[in-house]
């Protein structure tokens, strides 16, 4: 403790003589003071505390005028524009990671009444939303797709060679199941990891 060692006179900066020379001399004496009292290997926090205690009240005021160098950095609050940009970037990143599905909402009646279905209104919406044309285009290609593992898990009971446990790879099991069913070959196609089906009736 500082009270257990020989006191070191404070640094005087407003007296006669050069302040720079006085500082160098006092710093040298402080270094000798630490070594002589076994504090040269002490923790930096302890050495700083001893330094501020011994340097004197006059120099301590000067030190305090510089502010606390260890004061945590205070981040400026983000502006409204920055917050908006961050929100948009987060939204776009979220949308990019999803698979898009388009949902057409059809109003069953004009008055929003429950259990009331107006056929003319619904037909009008279906026509002008282009739903029939969309369905026709979808059915002209392979609009249904299913991973091989899911297909085997769901339809393996249709073949005795795959039930209850197929003894081959998923794509081979799919071949076995489909070739044992009366489905035209043009109704399905094999991809790298999924089976593509042309019509839901298949």
From TrEMBL:
Any one GO molecular-function label of the UniProt entry: ATP binding
Gene Ontology biological-process entries: actin filament organization; actin filament-based movement; endocytosis
GO cellular component, as recorded: cytoplasm; microvillus; myosin complex; plasma membrane
Keywords, ordered alphabetically: Actin-binding, ATP-binding, Motor protein, Myosin, Nucleotide-binding
Protein name: Unconventional myosin-Ia-like
Region (Actin-binding), start-end ranges: 88-110
Family: Belongs to the TRAFAC class myosin-kinesin ATPase superfamily. Myosin family.
InterPro entries: Kinesin_motor_dom_sf, Myosin_head_motor_dom-like, P-loop_NTPase
Gene (UniProt): LOC103521005
Pfam families according to UniProt: Myosin_head
SMART domains for this protein: MYSc
Domain (Myosin motor): residue spans on this chain: 1-202
């Amino acid at each position: 403790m500082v009270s257990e060692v020989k006191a070191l006179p404070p640094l005087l900066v407003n007296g006669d003589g050069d302040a720079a020379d006085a500082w160098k001399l006092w710093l040298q004496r402080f270094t000798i003071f630490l070594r002589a009292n076994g504090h040269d290997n002490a923790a930096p926090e302890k050495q700083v505390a001893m330094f501020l205690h011994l340097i004197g009240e006059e120099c301590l005021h000067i030190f305090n005028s510089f502010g606390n160098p260890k004061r945590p950095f205070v981040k400026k609050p983000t502006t409204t524009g920055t917050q908006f940009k961050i929100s948009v970037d987060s939204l776009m990143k979220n949308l990019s990671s999803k698979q898009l599905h388009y949902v057409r909402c059809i109003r069953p009646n004009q008055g929003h009444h429950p259990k009331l279905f107006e056929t003319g209104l619904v037909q009008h919406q279906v026509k002008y939303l282009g739903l029939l044309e969309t369905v026709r285009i979808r059915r002209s290609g392979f609009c249904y797709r299913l991973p091989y593992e899911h297909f085997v898990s769901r339809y393996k009971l249709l073949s005795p060679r795959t039930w209850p446990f197929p003894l081959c790879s998923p794509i081979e099991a799919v071949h076995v199941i489909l070739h044992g069913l009366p489905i035209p070959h043009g109704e399905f196609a094999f991809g790298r990891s999924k089976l593509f089906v042309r019509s839901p009736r298949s």
